[in-house]
Write a structure and sequence with these properties.
Radius of gyration: 19 Å
Largest sheet: 8 strands, mixed
Strand content: 25-35%
CATH class of the largest domain: Alpha Beta
Helix content: 25-40%
Structural class: alpha+beta
Number of helices: 9
Keywords: ATP-binding, Isoprene biosynthesis, Kinase, Nucleotide-binding, Transferase
Pathway: Isoprenoid biosynthesis; isopentenyl diphosphate biosynthesis via DXP pathway; isopentenyl diphosphate from 1-deoxy-D-xylulose 5-phosphate: step 3/6
Shape: globular
CATH architecture of the largest domain: 2-Layer Sandwich
Family: Belongs to the GHMP kinase family. IspE subfamily.
Low-confidence stretches: none
Order of helices and strands: EEEHEHHHEEEHHHEHEEHEE
EC number: 2.7.1.148
Catalytic activity: 4-CDP-2-C-methyl-D-erythritol + ATP = 4-CDP-2-C-methyl-D-erythritol 2-phosphate + ADP + H(+)
Mean pLDDT: 95
């Protein structure tokens, strides 16, 4: 059996995000349309030793139990009773505190890799159940693609692939801690609420124009650093058919039908010093990288 698996952990965007309630334990109840995109981290998992060891760029992420990939591994061993022991190496490309699910994608990749390496064959639903106890986005990231997601992230309704397009992601030079973003939303008197059902219906119909008209994020309000809204408007100025913040920020994305226009916008953003990535929708959250097993 292979001892090491190397996987791509894809980022996600929120085509629509609404907050529809709050549980007694304080967790917010979500209604979202989520989409995997081709920006990814590379995660290598080796079955070795008798502890969980994390390796990578310590300036980009913590290399201990604060890291969601470390916590995902611990949750897997606790749930399955398998002997503890793995080395996880993460090559980061997805920025943190951006609303792109980078850490959750890494955690999902760890669960998928350990399931294969340990021969437990738990399947997607059980991996999602384990992941839900670690991070709200992990259940979606395990399968990825396009889905309407509810509850605290554990209710997943697969949707058809979103209409083909180019997705330009821009990350302003500001971070938005998730806890602070939720606190600001809770304090807001009249947040703008998207119609998540309309967004999901546009995806089902395969209508790019209707999808562009239905993007929205309830967490994108005037309580956020102004640079986020300025960047969203900049994407529209550069030719995006629609633009929206993803997650709790700080990244925003624009949808383009024309590749050439999207590439031109990418160059202009990069020339201005804005971290940006041109992506396509992808149909999975985790998949083997080139030379994925050894």
């Amino acid at each position: 059996m292979d001892k090491t698996l190397r996987l791509r952990a894809y980022a996600k965007i929120n085509l629509a995000l609404d907050i529809v309630g709050r549980r007694e334990d304080g967790y917010h109840l979500m209604d979202m349309v989520m989409q995997s995109v081709s920006l990814f981290d590379e995660v290598a998992v080796e079955r070795t030793g008798d502890s969980i060891v994390l390796a990578g760029d310590e300036t980009a992420m913590p290399l201990d139990g604060r890291n969601i990939a470390h916590r995902a591994a611990a949750a897997f061993f606790a749930a399955t009773g398998q002997p503890v022991g793995c080395r996880i190496e993460i090559e980061k490309h997805v920025p943190s505190q951006a609303g792109l699910g980078g850490g959750s994608g890494d955690g999902a990749a760890v669960l998928v890799a350990l399931d294969a390496l340990c021969g437990t064959h738990l399947g997607t639903e059980e991996l999602r159940r384990i992941g839900a106890g670690v991070g709200a986005d992990i259940p979606f990231m395990v399968g990825g693609g396009t889905a309407r997601v509810g509850g605290i992230g554990e209710q997943i309704e697969p949707l058809p692939a979103m209409p083909a397009c180019y997705i330009l992601i821009a990350k302003p030079q500001v971070d938005v801690p998730t806890g602070s973003a939720f606190a600001a939303f809770d304090a807001a008197r009249d947040p703008q609420r998207p119609d998540t059902g309309r967004c999901a219906a546009a995806v089902r119909r395969g209508s790019y124009q209707q999808l562009c008209r239905s993007l929205g994020n309830a967490m994108a309000g005037d309580w956020l650093p102004p640079i986020i809204e300025e960047t969203r408007r900049r994407l529209l100025y550069l030719g995006a058919d629609a633009a929206c913040m993803t997650g709790s920020g700080a990244a925003v994305f624009g949808l383009f039908e024309r590749r050439g226009l999207a590439q031109l916008a990418l160059r202009q953003l990069c020339d201005a010093g804005v971290r940006s990535w041109l992506c396509r929708p992808v149909a999975q959250g985790v998949e083997p990288a080139a030379g994925g097993a050894s």
